[in-house]
Amino acid sequence: xxxxxxxxxxxxxxxxxxxxxxxxxxxxxxxxxxxxxxxxxxxxxxxxxxxxxxxxxxxxxxxxxxxxxxxxxxxxxxxxxxxxxxxxxxxxxxxxxxxxxxxxxxxxxxxxxxxxxxxxxxxxxxxxxxxxxxxxxxxxxxxxxxxxxxxxxxxxxxxxxxxxxxxxxxxxxxxxxxxxxxxxxxxxxxxxxxxxxxxxxxxxxxxxxxxxxxxxxxxxxxxxxxxxxxxxxxxxxxxxxxxxxxxxxxxxxx
Length: 254
Fold this sequence. Notes:
This protein is α/β, with parallel strands linked by helices. It is built from five helices and twelve strands. The protein folds into two domains: 6-94, Elongation Factor Tu (Ef-tu), domain 3; 111-246, Rossmann fold, CATH 3.40.50.80. The strands form two sheets. It has a six-stranded antiparallel beta sheet. A six-stranded parallel beta sheet has the order 10-9-8-7-11-12, sandwiched between helices.
């Protein structure tokens, strides 16, 4: 049984981008307070046990639902159970959120470079959706965003790629650059090729998101984060200008 720290909510929509990637939208009656970039803990019961895992929130606090972009871990404890759920099913969510991977306003730099692999795009979606909502309501902080989003194949990017392309037609302060690393399996792709860290320097220079103007955020695969940190360091970004959120830890020997 779930404790008092958790609440049962309804799965209202599920969008499958592939066999291993899906977007889950949850109904949360009442107010669910969080700062864009933070994560929530989802859980399902297994007998008397509660299986729980943290996931970055992709929705904005302004949205009427909670959105999560999740990758299936075939031998995992929770995601194979999540993959069995259909809209209308119940999921437990912890009532409190956590995380410090939020928009850096302390640096007073107005350019925000966001680098993600696959589901690592989630906190950036939350940040930019929220900024856009505030912008529409007359609050313009003068910030710029460049999002570099990598995956193996284009359909793994498709849902949020479409959202960002639509936003780019509406405002001038956001740029979105998708790239795929397994282009030989996706011959119709006409965008950037390679891993996200392979094109970071190209776009820090091309979009004027250099160390004098920008703060960087890295989210997703830990090896990408380490590689991108090295590239940004060579581009003279200081440690204080680089924020990171690793989605898992690579075990030694693997």
